[in-house]
Design brief:
Structural class of chain A: mainly beta
Largest interface: A-B, 84 and 93 residues
Radius of gyration of chain A: 33 Å
Helix content of chain B: 40-55%
Distance between the termini of chain B: 53 Å
Number of helices of chain B: 21
Strand content of chain A: over 45%
Oligomer: heterodimer
Shape of chain A: globular
Helix content of chain A: 10-25%
Largest sheet of chain A: 22 strands, antiparallel, barrel
Strand order of the largest sheet of chain B: 5-6-7
Structural class of chain B: mainly alpha
Strand content of chain B: 5-15%
Radius of gyration of chain B: 24 Å
Distance between the termini of chain A: 48 Å
Shape of chain B: globular
Number of strands of chain B: 11
């Protein structure tokens, strides 16, 4: 195969070309000269307008209470002239009549004052309460930020507007304290896994409930175009999520998409493209290293003389092809170099919004495309959104939001390719001398040609998804304070996954060609009635009452077929009927219903004392007859201390302080249906080639299954310092989950492996801190910093037998749910320890593990808990700078602590497959790091798994983005209201505590690190609106 | 809020029907395959650590050859035996417990059906008790969560096995239209094996002779025909465990074809081919066994008819200078070949002799080349590198009945009659014209002779470890003939440890005894 290293310039430059198209050369050069002349003259465009006499203007700046404000910046609009107030709040500046003075001060609303003929301009600035007046989306309603009693964190579109990202998960990473987002893979089309406040469930889902425009969303994160999102609100504590009852235990993420506003049509174009590159080569052996490791593996079993190299013995342990490669010398074949290419991604989007009083619209269409570092791995997404709002009368409004999405994820290689790239012998040969390709790299039938899937074009994987989220609402104001809202929604996904593998594919490995198709059709229907009563009495007593009645039903249909022995391989999966063998035909139906009643009362006194009470009753079809219904109450209190008179003295620095306290109970119904009914499984047998299928019971019936219950205490503190210059929230929580749905392992003598029961308890404790600070704010330069930190500890409190460990499942009381439990490597047995090693049945060069119980033998009892996947903390700092037309932001993300296990770190002990190069033991290299290769053992030798554990701590420069907004005077000529070009990078730099740097970090609860290279992404792009 | 599962029948109703009940009985067979499927299967437990087999270059599960400390409760092989067997027993128990509820079948029909479950339950327990001693004895369907278990005594387990087999013998038909189902002679044959294990020689001889005399079973004329994959149904088979060339019916398949296969593919002129199986050098005959097989090769055809010693060139790319496709590529010679002869043939084909494999009794070299036992040879697999084998496994065959009867009769002091029966087997094994040379007399019959005869006739058929154990010869003979066992093998190894996965899940761990020494 031709080596594929080419830079996709075409794609990368597309955006720039678009940008340039909108900026004809003339305009561009004109702009440059104007900027230069403005800088030279030291005066702005407006100042050059007329010969008006400038004079000294003085004055004093205070807050609304008359307190002097020092450090207020004052600028003459349109010029670069400016000053700041002194300690008394006084200033003096040169300005002419008609000039506009801009007074700005952090935490206060900026004011513009036009200079008349007066000599003194005194100004009072009002406090900026925008942050507190901000509207937050909560369950079945909205609330002002200042009235929130629970724990709710929000990210708005502006926070990730300028960042290219494949899906919303990438945009949320690190930004919300308590929310842990990890990628489930690194290839195109990979999605994210999201967990809020740790893990509580063993069996049921730990995924948060996602609500998009009011409708529960069970699709893929890839189905939502991040650009369509206006805001993401994350409900964290039980008082916020209890209104979602049996689905609230894992938190709720509410996604709101952009809607239209009154005004003329406004078009927006976003376009970007750029390459994706691997971070580094994974440290697999080259030919020389591989050969030497092989020889050492034979030396360990007296199969190779203890001299350097010996041709006669080489001839025994290496096959003909390997011997030729050794004779040729050099580094041999580098399969990583052959396989990996620079990937690329691009996205183009157009949206238009606007509207009249009667109709408002917001439409967008977008195309996203990504090709990975492995040739042929492609992800395409086409999405379209139409949001409409109609005002039928002052009392009646209605609207829809429609998200349609088609995505296509394709691969031309099976999972074997990456395995063989890492494992095939670098002494191999991929082509015969006459150019015909070889299927095996050496003479060994299991050391395959890693490029086989490409060479024979023998593999296809194709995943198409069509998804739609369609919501409609109608809202009627029955009384000025009483509103009825009807929500109807449907969410459907059609997915088809097809795979074909030919005779010369790594998957089939010279087996008959196979093909399969799997289809899923799922459909969720939603009905909700929401009644809201909202009234403020005597300006002080605010009451909001919400009542909800809802019904949700879901239907999932799957079907599929798998065949083998296709006569014409190139038909791939398009002619299953031609195959001589049908291996599998299947279909299934899963139906669930959820019927709900919910109510919430909010009472606020003067925005100072606030109380929220809620309750929800859920009936879920999955649960047993006796436990269909669950009731989920919550209570929350908030107290704005800063409004107290005794806090007046601290007002100058502590501008806002609110205490929150909440308790609530939520549920988790996330188990598969039909589990209360027991079940039969088909068994397979044959009578001299005739079918001998049977059915045996495989599920023990449990008629008492119900939802898991989670009770959360949350203590929160919202604060603002220096008139909001620094503000943030601190939350401390204690979550107890009980009646855990757990597959209790049964002694197999009963015939059943396990039974699902509501037993066991877990506990999550954690602390979350979010800070946002305006460090510098002047008309020309600003610097903001967002900081988030969270720490969560999950603990198993009780399992099915009470406080008794379940070693089989690696569940231990007092420990997180996923721990690494194994022998502890303490070194390598050395030559002078031969006798002692022998008492353990080991010999020098093998791994020495700790004999924990000192009984003179290595038994199961010597295994210990080595660590868990849970990080100690996750922290994130995002800095944003802007200087005139330039903006710069970068995000530093740390996931600190926790352990991961990397398969590749237990190198193959035998000479057969390639391995990573480590400092391994030989009689002349008495290291304690890695054992001696040994032809008698597989991965890592005896206790090889002890070599795989690593500290997963990492810090990355996740995101860096540099933008330039083209000055208005030039864009306006082109009728462009805003034009910005940007350069962005993702995962630009990595730091890891252990040698994981070049690996795709998957240090998460979901799985161990698989050898896949880390990837760095660069993007150039343009945003235009007109 | 009602939940209706439309995709599968309600359990209780389904098993009352004829189709449902037959499906339930079918399910009891599935787990017989567990001994042969997957990578962690049973083979090391019954080949390794005996006088006949030692390890090749693949060192997995070598502990069962060396009896080292890795034979511990957490060893995956033990669980892979234990767990599917108890699931099989549970299926049998369900079939037995529900046999009274079947509404669509007559009592007679139900009895002959449920007798299959009795037969299989006995078969499962027989293998469990052989390895683990007294195991928990479950005989009824479990319908409520159960978290305790108690071990029965070895005697109790055997008593149940015999009781089940007697029931099966009474109600099973003499033949079944579905080949592979339990039959009356299968139950009798298993009874003979079990009685011999229990040293109830009278009964062992009686039942073995019933199988020999009462039916139309007959030894095949050619011993090699037994191992042909295209001969899955023949007159010598009493009961065989079924696999299939149809992927849908084959489950995880039979992987034994792998483990006796040398790395022939690395030799000049050779590449992998279906008829040569896929190389996975796990089980190599001990020096003792190779010598035993070869010593009477002039009259006894069994080595040549069930072992592969010649490989034919199939790879044009790596032919030796004087080698053509289809020529001998290399050959194993069971005696020492002088170096000058080897040198003389160098450009023609490779010669690999006993001295390349053994230095005295000690295995030597890379342990990747050795003669291959062909009883599991599987040329009908889907592809060259497929690990999923398709070949049936003969579990009970007529020759064993002759040898069981002979051994029992010998122990009962009827060696004359015993010798006659042994000779039936030996005459069949002879090269044509050498039938008389194979004959033995009553005086030849000793327990060691019987064990050697069983090695020659039944070697590789998974009986050796049990044979040595039941005759009290495991430690003696393994240490004598298999040097790998010498350092560690001791009395405690006659029982395997109960898997930790079994004990860990119990709420009465304290009362549940592990086998001594583990």
């Amino acid at each position: 195969m031709q080596k594929k290293i080419y830079y996709k310039t075409r794609m990368a430059l597309l955006s720039l070309i678009i940008a340039v198209l909108f900026l004809p050369e003339r305009a561009f050069s004109q702009q440059l000269s104007l900027v230069a002349s403005a800088a030279e003259k030291g005066s702005g465009v407006k100042a050059a307008k007329g010969p008006v006499q400038a004079r000294e203007v003085t004055g004093r700046v205070t807050d609304n209470g008359g307190v002097a404000l020092p450090g207020v910046s004052i600028a003459v609009k349109g010029t670069s002239r400016g000053t700041v107030t002194d300690a008394d709040g006084s200033y003096s500046i040169s300005a002419a009549s008609g000039d506009v003075l801009v007074f700005s001060y952090i935490g206060f609303t900026a004011r513009e004052v036009t200079v008349g003929n007066e000599a003194t301009v005194d100004v009072a600035l009002g406090e900026n309460t925008k942050a507190l007046e901000e509207v937050v989306v909560v369950g079945y309603g909205t609330q002002k930020r200042k009235d929130i009693t629970g724990s709710v964190a929000s990210v708005s579109a502006e926070d990730f507007a300028d960042i290219p990202m494949p899906n919303i998960g990438a945009g949320l990473t690190g930004r919300i304290p308590g929310l842990d987002v990890v990628t489930s893979g690194a290839g195109p089309g990979a999605t994210n896994q999201i967990q809020l406040r740790g893990q509580r469930s063993f069996t049921a889902s730990n995924d948060p409930l996602i609500i998009v425009d009011g409708s529960p969303f069970y699709g893929s994160m890839n189905d939502i175009n991040p650009y369509d999102i206006k805001s993401v609100d994350v409900l964290k504590d039980a008082s916020s999520t209890a209104i979602y009852g049996a689905r609230g235990a894992n938190g709720v993420i509410i996604i709101t998409t952009k809607r239209g506003i009154t005004g003329p049509p406004k078009f927006m174009i976003e376009s970007y493209a750029g390459p994706q590159m691997i971070y580094g080569r994974l440290p697999y052996a080259n030919a020389e290293q591989y050969a030497e490791i092989g020889r050492e593996a034979y030396r360990a079993i007296d199969g190779y003389p203890d001299t350097e190299t010996n041709e006669q013995y080489d001839a025994v342990i290496f096959d003909q092809i390997e011997l030729e490669a050794i004779k040729r010398g050099g580094k041999g074949l580098d399969y990583q170099d052959m396989l990996f290419q620079n990937g690329h991604q691009q996205k183009h989007q157009l949206s238009v919004m606007g509207g009249s009083e009667a109709v408002k619209y917001n439409f967008s269409g977008s195309y996203f495309n990504q090709e990975g570092i492995i040739p042929g791995e492609v992800f395409d997404r086409y999405s379209m959104r139409t949001n409409l709002d109609f005002t039928l009368s002052p009392l009646v409004t209605a609207g829809t939001s429609i998200l349609l999405n088609y995505s296509l994820n394709q691969r031309k290689t099976g999972p074997g390719t990456l395995n063989q790239v890492f494992q095939s012998s670098p002494l191999g040969k991929l082509y015969e001398d006459d150019g015909t390709p070889r299927f095996t790299a050496t003479l060994d039938g299991l050391v395959l040609n890693p490029m086989a899937d490409y060479i024979w074009d023998s593999y296809r994987w194709d995943n198409k998804r069509w998804s739609g989220l369609v919501n409609a609402y109608a809202q009627v104001k029955i009384l000025p304070e009483l509103t009825y809202r009807l929500n109807l929604g449907t969410n459907f996904n059609l997915a088809t996954i097809k795979e074909s593998a030919g005779y010369y594919s790594l998957t089939r490995n010279l087996g008959t060609p196979t093909a399969s198709i799997g289809n899923t059709v799922d459909n969720l229907k939603l009905y909700e009635s929401i009644l809201t009563y909202d009234k403020t009495f005597r300006d002080k007593h605010q009451i909001t009452v919400t009542a909800v009645h809802g019904l949700q039903s879901s239907r999932i249909e799957t079907s599929g077929a798998g065949v083998s022995d296709l006569p014409y391989e190139l038909a791939r999966y398009h002619n299953l009927g031609s195959a001589s063998l049908v291996n599998a035909v299947n279909s299934n139906l899963i139906e669930t219903d959820l019927l709900s009643y919910a109510g919430r009362v909010f009472y606020g006194y003067n925005s100072k004392y606030m109380l929220t009470l809620s309750i929800r009753a859920d009936g879920a079809s999955q649960f047993s007859e006796n436990h269909k219904w669950g009731y989920f109450p919550s209570v929350a209190l908030a107290y704005r201390i800063s409004d107290e008179s005794f806090m007046k003295r601290t007002q100058s620095w502590l501008s806002d302080l609110k205490l929150r306290l909440s308790y609530g109970v939520t549920g988790n119904q996330g188990i598969s249906p039909y589990q209360t009914q027991g079940g039969l499984s088909r068994t397979v047998y044959s009578w001299n080639q005739a079918p001998g299928f049977g059915y045996r019971p495989t599920e023990l019936v449990n008629r008492d299954l119900k939802w898991e219950t989670t009770a959360v205490y949350n203590f929160g503190l919202d604060f603002g310092f220096f008139t909001g210059r620094l503000q943030g929230s601190l939350d401390i929580y204690n979550t107890n989950t009980y009646d855990l749905l757990m597959f209790r392992n049964l002694p197999i003598t009963s015939g059943y492996e396990q039974v699902l029961q509501n037993v066991g308890r877990t506990n999550n404790k954690g602390i979350e801190l979010g800070l946002s600070s305006v460090n510098i704010s002047t008309p020309n330069f600003s610097w903001n910093t967002d900081f988030s930190f969270f720490h969560n500890r999950t603990k198993i409190v009780e399992l099915y037998n009470g406080e008794v460990d379940d070693i089989g499942n690696r569940w231990f009381i007092g420990q997180p749910i996923q721990v690494y439990y194994d022998f502890k490597k303490i070194g390598i047995w050395q030559l002078n320890e031969e006798a002692e090693a022998a008492t353990y049945g080991r010999q020098p060069g093998q791994i020495k593990v700790q004999d924990v119980d000192n009984d003179g033998a290595i038994t199961d009892k010597d295994r210990v808990i080595l660590g868990s996947r849970q990080p100690d903390f996750i922290a994130n700092i995002t800095n944003r700078f802007s200087y005139k037309s330039w903006d710069l932001s970068f995000q530093t993300y740390a996931r600190w602590g926790g352990m991961t296990s990397v398969e590749g770190f237990a190198p193959f002990s035998k000479k057969r497959y390639n391995k990573m190069v480590f400092d391994y033991w030989t009689p002349s290299n008495p290291t304690n790091e890695y054992p001696r290769p040994n032809q008698l053992y597989e991965e890592g030798g005896l206790n090889g798994s002890t070599l795989t554990y690593r500290d997963a701590s990492m810090i990355s420069l996740r995101q860096l983005s540099l933008g330039y907004t083209i000055p208005k005077p030039f864009t306006e000529k082109l009728h462009i209201s805003n034009a910005r070009v940007f350069l962005s990078g993702e995962n630009l730099a990595y730091w890891t505590k252990s040698e994981l740097r070049d690996f795709n970090m998957k240090a998460d609860w979901a799985g161990d690190v698989s050898p896949y290279p880390a990837i760095r992404t660069m993007t150039v792009g343009v945003n235009l609106s007109f | 809020m009602e939940e209706v599962k439309v995709v599968s029948p309600p359990v209780d109703d389904y098993y009352k029907t004829e189709a449902g009940y037959k499906d339930l009985v079918n399910s009891t067979y599935t787990f017989t395959r567990s001994l042969f499927s997957g990578g962690n299967n049973y083979a090391p437990l019954v080949f390794f650590g005996t006088d006949l087999w030692t390890n090749g270059s693949d060192a997995s599960f070598i502990e069962f050859n060396t009896y080292n400390s890795a034979i511990q409760p957490a060893n995956p092989l033990l669980w892979e035996l234990w767990s599917p067997f108890y699931q099989g027993i549970a299926a049998c128990n369900t079939a037995i417990s529900r046999s009274g509820n079947v509404t669509e079948m007559s009592e007679e029909e139900v009895k002959s059906k449920v007798a299959e479950a009795y037969f299989l339950r006995a078969w499962y327990y027989h293998i469990l008790v052989m390895h683990f001693g007294g195991v928990p004895l479950k005989t009824e369907e479990v319908t409520e969560v159960e978290t305790t278990a108690t071990r029965a005594t070895e005697d109790e387990v055997y008593a149940q096995i015999i009781k089940d087999l007697l029931f099966a013998e009474e109600f099973l038909p003499e033949a079944q239209s579905d080949f592979g189902r339990a039959t009356k002679p299968a139950a009798q044959a298993l009874l003979a094996r079990v009685y011999l294990t229990r040293n109830q020689n009278e009964e062992a001889a009686t039942y073995a002779k019933k199988v020999i005399n009462d039916y139309s079973f007959a030894l095949l004329n050619d011993y090699a025909d037994l191992w042909r994959i295209d001969n899955p149904v023949n007159s010598e088979i009493i009961w065989s465990i079924q696999f299939s060339q149809d992927e849908r019916l084959n489950g995880n398949g039979n992987s034994y074809f792998l483990y006796f296969t040398p790395r022939y593919d690395l030799q000049p002129g050779m590449k992998r081919a279906l008829e040569n199986d896929r190389p996975w050098p796990r089980f190599v005959a001990t020096r003792y066994y190779l010598d035993l097989l070869a010593s009477n090769r002039w009259r006894d055809a069994r080595f040549d008819k069930s072992w592969k010693t010649v490989w034919y060139a199939n790879n044009e790319a790596t032919l030796l200078p004087n080698m053509q496709l289809g020529d001998t590529a290399f050959v194993y010679v069971p005696y020492a070949v002088p170096q000058d002869i080897k040198d003389a043939k160098k450009g023609e084909y490779g010669i690999f002799d006993i001295n390349n494999l053994y230095d005295g009794e000690k295995p030597t070299g890379s342990l990747e080349l050795f003669p291959q036992m062909r009883k599991y040879n599987d040329p009908l697999r889907a592809s060259i590198n497929s690990g999923v084998g398709t070949k049936n496994v003969i579990e009970l065959r007529l020759a064993e009945m002759y040898l069981i009867a002979a051994e029992a009769l010998m122990k009962l002091g009827k060696a004359e009659e015993g010798a006659e029966l042994v000779n039936v087997v030996r005459r069949r094994a002879a090269w044509p014209g050498h039938e008389e040379d194979m004959e033995v007399t009553a005086g030849d019959l000793t327990i060691d002779f019987i064990l050697e005869e069983r090695a020659l006739e039944l070697g590789g058929e998974r009986l050796r470890w049990a044979d040595l154990k039941r005759t009290g010869k495991l430690i003696e003979r393994a240490k004598l003939y298999n040097p790998a066992t010498r350092q560690n093998l001791e009395e405690k190894h006659l029982l395997r440890p109960i898997p930790s996965n079994m004990i860990d899940r119990l709420t009465n761990k304290g009362e549940f005894q592990q086998n001594p020494g583990y």
